[in-house]
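Narrative progress, year one. The postdoctoral researcher (J.K.) led the effort to move from monomer predictions toward full complexes, under supervision of the PI. The following entry was the first complex the group processed end to end, covering 230 residues in total.
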Amino acid sequence: EVQLLESGGGLVQPGGSLRLSCAASGFTFSSYAVSWVRQAPGKGLEWVSTISGSGARIYYADSVKGRFTISRDNSKNTLYLQMNSLRAEDTAVYYCAKGRGSAYPNHYFDYWGQGTLVTVSS
Amino acid sequence: EIVLTQSPGTLSLSPGERATLSCRASQSVSSNYLAWYQQKPGQAPRLLIYGASSRATGIPDRFSGSGSGTDFTLTISRLEPEDFAVYYCHQYDSSPQTFGQGTKVEIK
């Protein structure tokens, strides 16, 4: 059974930093691209970032480019998102999602974690 | 960036009725790289449809997807109580991947 379990969310002040983790199980982690998708309170879904299975290819939304860094440790089956210079508009539930299909952008998300809430506020 | 516009914003229907949800793209989505997800309150999205018309594993056949180019449709043939939720379309044809704003299917 595929499982994705996010952690690391919380309350942070504007300008602060936070690192999210996503522990994966039930599939060959290194064979699949994984992504972060966020959802602001009461709003829709927004793609944030994707990393290929090997970690060699990385993509970011313009809204987070230069502030967020995605990475993965295939030996630990874990995905990360380092978030710096956080803003109020980054407040959202952050989901990790497993890609299915071809290389980014040509894949959809067949499994999602339960999400972790990041709140940016003073 | 491909903008996806879903309509209607809210659909008020009774159990047993047919639901038709629309997703219109600002430019053509090639190879039918269009997916649909269902989200219930407090839960993560769940994949329903990929490739515009292929049902994901375990999805009941009352859910069907159709369309091509810029116009796509999700149809729920007969609404069950557990189908009342928010539905999102998602294009994975070009970067950045984008989602529609969602259609809420509520009990009338």
